[in-house]
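Exercise 7.
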Amino acid sequence: FKCTSGLVDCCCHHILYNQHDFIHVESLLEITCKRKGFRLLSLLKFHCELNFIEQCWGYTKQLYHCCSLSSKEADLELNVIILDSVPIESICKFETCSLHFMDAYHKGLNGKKAAFVARKCCGHQTLPLSVFDNLERANM
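Solution. The predicted structure, written as tokens, is:
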């Protein structure tokens, strides 16, 4: 759409997307989960380093490719087994890594510096202020 900036009633697109009841509609997934009594946590589409679920998925894909494939039904059973085999410790590690990246980006670091800092600061929920000294010593 090539609408003039600031207009809200220039076309159907803008008119609909400025209606409160059009914007805040629950998805079918949200409605179904709510009806069944489940809470739905919808994570925004970020780079995988910011979403530890993506890191868990990568871990399971690695395990899956190490196994030999067979029939489709056996593959489905294997998927369940592999998903259940991700250790809680690994999930916590992936979450901490994601928190490191988020904190690094929040403090103004770019991707390369954020990756360096995330590797150096294991075990911390947030990055210590001394992290900037480490960056200077590494000539980054």
